[in-house]
Design goal:
By secondary structure, the protein is α+β, with helices and mostly antiparallel strands. The protein is built from 7 helices and 14 strands. It is globular and about 50 Å long.
Length: 266
């Protein structure tokens, strides 16, 4: 089964509208906390319900994984949608601009092949950054084909999370770090920003990764563990909602190898 392009356009519009809705609500959002201490807002829940419902209507045979609600475990589905209603909820709830609505798509082999990412306050020379990549298609940034700029094999500038010091040995790294507060944006950065070559990811879940991972793979990059083993979307990662087994290194092949040497895991 292929995914109908017109229906995917509806999904893309839904994700983009969700980003605009989050932007509209940001000034008065209600901030609460989950049992694990992570931040949750009423906007997360509203977006999750809306997008999950739309996917169920348009693609009733597909599996859906959402951070904020239980959606079933259709393990043999031909397509799997992975939703993070707001990636970067903490920074979002504090009024910062670096958050994103993220929807990734896996194929029947559980390979990441599709991405819909709305970052309504994090554009490049514009207010919005919207990424659309239908399965099997070229990734688009604000409607235009993404073209990689800069040397991604020589790593000088890296995006990562604010607690990276707990996971990596920084003693041999002399470059720069950028911390935005959204794993989706961190992983996407080597693709969309010319001066950022790679990213480090840790202690995250499938919804924090899937969409940007799909875009990385589409342009010849990837995400691997320090032992060079690839990231696998198995049942534990998808349906039991386990976190990454170890930190991830994302970028070009040479960039990943260099980064692993410069920033080995602790």
């Amino acid at each position: 089964m292929t995914l109908d392009t017109e229906k995917l356009s509806v999904i893309a519009d839904e994700v983009r509208k969700a980003g605009a809705f989050a932007f509209q609500r940001q000034a008065d959002v209600r901030r609460t906390f989950k049992k694990d201490g992570s931040v949750l807002t009423d906007v997360d829940m509203a977006i999750s319900h809306s997008i999950v419902s739309k996917i169920r209507t348009l693609f009733p045979g597909a599996a859906v994984v959402s951070e904020e609600e239980e959606t079933g475990t259709e393990r043999d589905a031909e397509w799997t949608f992975i939703l993070d209603p707001i990636d970067g909820t903490d920074v979002y709830s504090q009024g910062l601009p670096s958050f994103a609505v993220s929807l990734g798509v896996l194929d029947s082999n559980r390979e990441p092949v599709g991405a819909y990412i709305a970052a309504p306050r994090f554009g490049i020379g514009t207010e919005e950054m919207f990424v659309r990549m239908d399965p099997g298609k070229t990734p688009l940034l604000n409607g235009k084909e993404i073209k990689i700029q800069g040397d991604k094999d020589t790593v000088n500038e890296v995006t990562t999370g604010s607690k990276a010091f707990k996971y990596f040995d920084f003693s041999s790294f002399t470059g720069k770090f950028r911390i935005f507060g959204s794993t989706i944006i961190h992983m996407l950065s080597p693709v969309v920003f010319s001066s950022i070559e790679a990213s480090l990811t840790f202690s995250c879940y499938a919804w924090d990764i899937a969409s940007s991972h799909a875009v990385l793979k589409s342009v010849g990059m990837d995400s691997v563990y320090a032992d060079l083993e690839p990231l696998v979307y198995d049942d534990d990662f998808l349906y039991r909602k386990h976190p990454l087994r170890a930190p991830l290194y994302s970028g070009s092949e040479k960039g990943r190898e260099a980064l692993i040497k410069m920033l080995p895991p602790l």
